[in-house]
DNA sequence: TTTCACACTTTCCTTTTGGTAAGTATGGCG
DNA sequence: CGCCATACTTACCAAAAGGAAAGTGTGAAA
């Protein structure tokens, strides 16, 4: 009942050009993968970390995915990778300013999720109840 | 050269409890899929849209994924679904306030992408060049 | 009677994702 | 000599994602 009827357009921000649009989509897809944000979070929280340490802080990630994620982030300029010439090898990962900024940008989503978690749970429950005994389309 | 050395911790925002952490991760994973954000964008830009219209505005989405995405968004309370009892059937989709807020929250990422698109392209190009003739680990 | 519009649903099948586990390279130590 | 640590890489395989296309239901129009 608290939901007002609304059919008007609302802008989400600055206008988007078609090419930028495509680029942003691609970036969002990349960034929205399960691990990238968690790696950013780990590095932002703990500062410089070595390969294995990143994996530990993130938790539940396989070596393969950790390598892949870090490599991609390095390519995109989100992290720096520093090899210390010692044996056994030490490799340090660190957030770039750009990577840190991305983390901050994502904070908005984090806060949103926090704010609406109750509402989401409620909505899902209601939807489940409704779905139990209702057809999707009913004409007249 | 413009990148300063940094090994200090930096906070991304409010502290996170372990359980909230997991919940928020799940929500972000759901929300951050390829299509959800694009549907939000379409609805925020154009206002109320019918099923087929959403698909057109989003572009490149299959019926199957459109249905699935809209259903999920409806369950989560991001959109409302209104069936007009006419034949052939009309179904209208509209952003809820919560959905719109999510769009706004995601704007930060959008802006980030816009700001750093050049830097990303450059970083990728350099990475490609470097990768062409450099081993990943080299001791002493 | 066939056709059409619309919003799906379903089936089939290919592509992608991602985990597990084993392998690689290096040099110091016992 | 074999073993260790570290940061990967590779091969194999199972599961999930997702596209294409055909089918569904309704009533009006041709």
How would you describe this structure to a colleague?
The structure is a homodimer of 140-residue chains. The first copy, chain A, is mostly helical and 140 residues long. Chain A has a single domain (19-132), classed as Winged helix-like DNA-binding domain superfamily/Winged helix DNA-binding domain (Arc Repressor Mutant, subunit A, Orthogonal Bundle). Helix content of chain A is 59%, strand content 10%. Chain A has five helices and three strands. Chain A has a three-stranded antiparallel sheet. The radius of gyration of chain A is 21 Å and the shape is extended. Chains A and B meet through helix 1, helix 2, helix 4, strand 3 and helix 5 of A and helix 1, helix 2, helix 4, strand 3 and helix 5 of B. The structure holds a DNA duplex (30 and 30 nucleotides).
Strand content of chain A: 5-15%
Element-by-element helix/strand order of chain A: HHEHHEEH
User: How many helices of chain A in DSSP terms?
Assistant: 5
Shape of chain A: extended
Query: Uncertain runs of chain A with pLDDT below 50, 5 residues or more?
Result: 1-6
Query: From the helix content, strand content and strand pairing of chain A, which structural class follows?
Result: mainly alpha
Please state the oligomeric state of the protein chains shown.
homodimer
Order of strands, main sheet of chain A, comes to 1-3-2
Separation of the first and last Cα atoms of chain A: 24 Å
Give the proportion of residues in helices of chain A: 55-70%
Name the CATH homologous superfamily of chain A: Winged helix-like DNA-binding domain superfamily/Winged helix DNA-binding domain
| CATH class group of chain A | Mainly Alpha
**What's the architecture of chain A in CATH terms?**
Orthogonal Bundle
Q: What is the strand tally of chain A?
A: 3
Major sheet of chain A, described briefly? 3 strands, antiparallel
Whole-angstrom Rg of chain A? 21 Å
Question: Mean pLDDT across all residues of chain A, rounded?
Answer: 84
Biggest interface between protein chains, with counts per chain? A-B, 75 and 75 residues
CATH topology of chain A: Arc Repressor Mutant, subunit A
């Amino acid at each position: 009942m608290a939901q007002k009827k609304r059919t008007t357009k609302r802008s989400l921000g600055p206008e988007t050009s078609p090419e930028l649009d495509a680029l942003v989509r691609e970036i969002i897809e990349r960034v929205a993968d399960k691990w990238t944000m968690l790696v950013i979070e780990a590095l932002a929280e703990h500062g410089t970390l070595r390969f294995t340490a990143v994996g530990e802080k993130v938790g539940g990630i396989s070596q393969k995915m950790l390598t892949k994620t870090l490599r991609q982030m390095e390519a995109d300029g989100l992290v720096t990778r520093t090899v210390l010439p010692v044996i056994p090898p030490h490799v340090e990962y660190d957030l770039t300013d750009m990577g840190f900024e991305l983390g901050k940008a994502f904070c908005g989503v984090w806060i949103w999720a926090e704010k609406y978690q109750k509402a989401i749970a409620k909505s899902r429950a209601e939807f489940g109840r409704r779905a139990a005994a209702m057809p999707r389309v009913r004409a007249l």
